[in-house]
Structure prediction request, 217 residues.
Amino acid sequence: MSFIRKCVLLILVIIGLTGCGVSPGIREYPATPIEKLKTILVLPFDYHCPTESPLPFYCPVAGVIPGEIEPYAKDVMNELLRKELEPIFLRHNFLFLSQNDYETLLEEALSVAKTSKDLVSYFSKKTETQAILYGKIFRFKQRRGSSWAVESPASVAFTLVLYDGQTGKILWQRTFDETQKPLSENILNLPLYGKIKWLTAEELAERGLKSLLRTFP
Prediction:
């Protein structure tokens, strides 16, 4: 078999493997069919806290190793999420809650809510929305080095959870967990990385959000 034919065969295998299933770095939570979902409240991203209590929001994530989080990670993720939700505006209306409004409403809710489901219901009633989209950052480590050579690669892990506003039930959840690797170690990650370069944490997070939201209800 000639070298060119071998290359073509390898590309076809890669396309076949990456087209059949979720992208690298993504973990799923079984989705629930959604009917009559008009307005979704989008909360600002939270940080993972090692000593956090079951409240404020029930967010089942297993196997993700928390790590370094850059101080600007929350602002970056909030802006990226707003941008990536724009194409979905045709299916749903999104109400974005500011950080100040979120903290005020959370303080009110925690004074009366006894469970995470109560908390979700409180937020939903107060904002007259049918569902709540919540995100939590577990890792947001910036690349150390340039796009061609790094001392350490970007590493990003976060989850998105969609709750039913009335029952607090999880309707949809996806988790992204990826530390960029050299393509020589895992060529199947090329569709995720998008280019043969070392990505910044922002670029890796953006690609992760795109992959997750492809399955948004």
Notes: The chain has a mean pLDDT of 80.
